[in-house]
Amino acid sequence: xxxxxxxxxxxxxxxxxxxxxxxxxxxxxxxxxxxxxxxxxxxxxxxxxxxxxxxxxxxxxxxxxxxxxxxxxxxxxxxxxxxxxxxxxxxxxxxxxxxxxxxxxxxxxxxxxxxxxxxxxxxxxxxxxxxxxxxxxxxxxxxxxxxxxxxxxxxxxxxxxxxxxxxxxxxxxxxxxxxxxxxxxxxxxxxxxxxxxxxxxxxxxxxxxxxxxxxxxxxxxxxxxxxxxxxxxxxxxxxxxxxxxxxxxxxxxxxxxxxxxxxxxxxxxxxxxxxxxxxxxxxxxxxxxxxxxxxxxxxxxxxxxxxxxxxxxxxxxxxxxxxxxxxxxxxxxxxxxxxxxxxxxxxxxxxxxxxxxxxxxxxxxxxxxxxxxxxxxxxxxxxxxxxxxxxxxxxxxxxxxxxxxxxxxxxxxxxxxxxxxxxxxxxxxxxxxxxxxxxxxxxxxxxxxxxxxxxxxxxxxxxxxxxxxxxxxxxxxxxxxxxxxxxxxxxxxxxxxxxxxxxxxxxxxxxxxxxxxxxxxxxxxxxxxxxxxxxx
Amino acid sequence: xxxxxxxxxxxxxxxxxxxxxxxxxxxxxxxxxxxxxxxxxxxxxxxxxxxxxxxxxxxxxxxxxxxxxxxxxxxxxxxxxxxxxxxxxxxxxxxxxxxxxxxxxxxxxxxxxxxxxxxxxxxxxxxxxxxxxxxxxxxxxxxxxxxxxxxxxxxxxxxxxxxxxxxxxxxxxxxxxxxxxxxxxxxxxxxxxxxxxxxxxxxxxxxxxxxxxxxxxxxxxxxxxxxxxxxxxxxxxxxxxxxxxxxxxxxxxxxxxxxxxxxxxxxxxxxxxxxxxxxxxxxxxxxxxxxxxxxxxxxxxxxxxx
Lengths: 536, 306
Fold this sequence. Notes:
The complex is a heterodimer of chains A (536) and B (306).
Chain A: H1 4-10, E1 35-40, H2 58-67, E2 72-74, E3 80-82, E4 85-90, E5 96-101, H3 115-125, E6 142-149, E7 152-157, H4 164-168, H5 178-184, E8 198-204, E9 208-213, E10 234-239, H6 243-251, E11 257-259, H7 263-270, E12 275-281, E13 284-291, H8 301-309, H9 313-321, H10 341-344, H11 352-361, E14 365-366, E15 372-374, E16 377-378, E17 380-385, H12 393-405, E18 410-415, H13 418-427, E19 432-438, H14 446-449, H15 465-476, H16 480-496, E20 501-504, E21 507-513, E22 516-517, E23 520-521, E24 527-528, E25 533-534
Parallel strand pairs in A: 1-10, 1-11, 17-18
Antiparallel strand pairs in A: 2-3, 4-5, 5-7, 6-7, 8-9, 9-10, 11-21, 12-21, 13-19, 13-20, 14-15, 15-16, 22-25, 23-24
Chain B: H1 2-28, H2 33-38, H3 44-54, H4 60-72, H5 86-121, H6 126-140, H7 143-157, H8 170-199, H9 202-209, H10 214-251, H11 257-266, H12 270-298, H13 300-305
Helix pairs in contact in B: 1-12, 5-6, 5-8, 5-10, 5-12, 6-8, 7-8, 7-10, 8-10, 9-10, 10-11, 10-12, 11-12
């Protein structure tokens, strides 16, 4: 007889079972109290911006989830569920959303969450005066909010914008106390006040952020692993920018947990029973390489093909990430709604000979040191970069550099401070660059590939009438299946025309000591400390 | 007195030169700070408004004159990125860097001077060779790599010392050892050579010949004379330690001016870069001024000539 266990084995274990799930035995009773210290992969920044509306920087957003709640929550099946909003109705013209709100929620400063708070927050995000906030793009064609009753608001749009609900689940649209906003203005970034499971205590710029339990917290979203106030008494984030130090801090138990664990340590920590590794795909526009399609010779699709045919990304990702992270085929990471990962898997193969033929036919002939030349110009590829070896990206580029040298490309890395880098992207003064962007909705593609939907410093320079139309339709389309088809089309064409070369799927990783229990990663791929506790 | 005044004037000139040079370099560097401050979704209009707000729309000379005028009143301006006064941002970070630099120079000095003397006295012996090889190891090692090794040994394996943070003295030990040991190698060689030179001098031979105890010769005659070139090196060393702090602060997740500077360069936060460089150059010039002045204490000849 085939038991369930056998069946699972036969099916190739479709579930990923946490490595230590069995060793823990029956669920232990959570122990309240204590301080959890978390080593944050926060990069060498000297200023923390704890204003959810004003930071798209992922490490800061990992802190936001503990301080701020959102109107809705993203569920594991990628649908949107209630949180501070208990229900909503979308008008037939799909240009207004009416939300019913919880009435039992208070902010950390004691003021009540209500319809007016929603209005103040959304109006702020959309503000037309002063410096625009980074979250502005998340609310699309926002027109205004009407307070219909203390527990009812209507959000109006100038045209339908389907990504809105998923956007509202993002940390970037976390709800701030209006009283605190009135008091601090943009200095809220150093005085964060939300309604989340932890409240702000103090921060040392660039070094640490101290939070403490919000004893009144009783509004975790349905389906959360834990309800009621957090178990932990205190939660401290320490910014440890250097990866080897971060891992050492976990190994020596100076921190209870840390994120951004490099592949070599993921492998060794997994095999050590004193530690645990949590991994989850970050909902992300995968790290993708973009050839500057506005500049010769990259404006020629066949040259772009020749470049890609010279790449062996399977090998690059396997060697650099030691098998800890999958190679990406589609621009959108596999779990995002409308990712074309399945459709695009195996859609192209490296073919060095074909690459050489194309280049020969296009008049690029091998010259000195095997580098191809045409009309006295060498086939150089300048890779513009500003983030250094974050997530081992420069290691990947170095690997690729050797691969494409075999067909006669000469790649060099042009590392620049952020300001110069962005100037170069704006001026189109680069051949190749790469980027990723966390996002829960496929509309993130329009931030790169829609000419009037992206910033001048965008790394992608796609300008394709069909893709633009699909992206615009995707923003308005209400039918789930039709919408999925639109984005799958976009991704297909981007890959087919080599306007995007997805590289790897980022798994967000946390290593913890065996003392840490109940720490989870939410659907977006951000850490949740609400249900975490420390074993005695 | 004239000597001191002369030195002070020279020091002021150096600081002024540095500030001007950095200002010009930042001005010429590509990238518009207003675009970075404005963020991803900014319109041309809001960028123009921010440019006006920051004052970066004015010509180079106007900005430079304004900066100097502010500087004369001790006003370093506002950070472009956070809109806080630059002095506030600097003072939040500076004490940590000062502590690191000072204690690292103590490590460098103690290790460098002591081992240098021991090596010189045992010239050619196995102790000399051992010291020289170990020191060569430290000198040739990037502080980054040495830091990782120290963390692995003292923090992960032995679990004696914390690897991260700034605040307590325990947290300072590994970073100061890392920075100090890398610097101590050169100091050791300098001390060794300079002691050896003095050991061969006529007056040392004379002192020994008249039966003065070995130890007394070493401390009263040899060290005092050997110290002068070492003190010079120390001035340069503090500068090196200040710049080395950038790497070490990041590695050990410490607060500090180095990290602030890297961050500010990334977003082209000109007032903060200016402020950090100003502070570093003043510290550097001040240390070297002290070094110059200390010559006259160690060596009366300088006083006489000055």
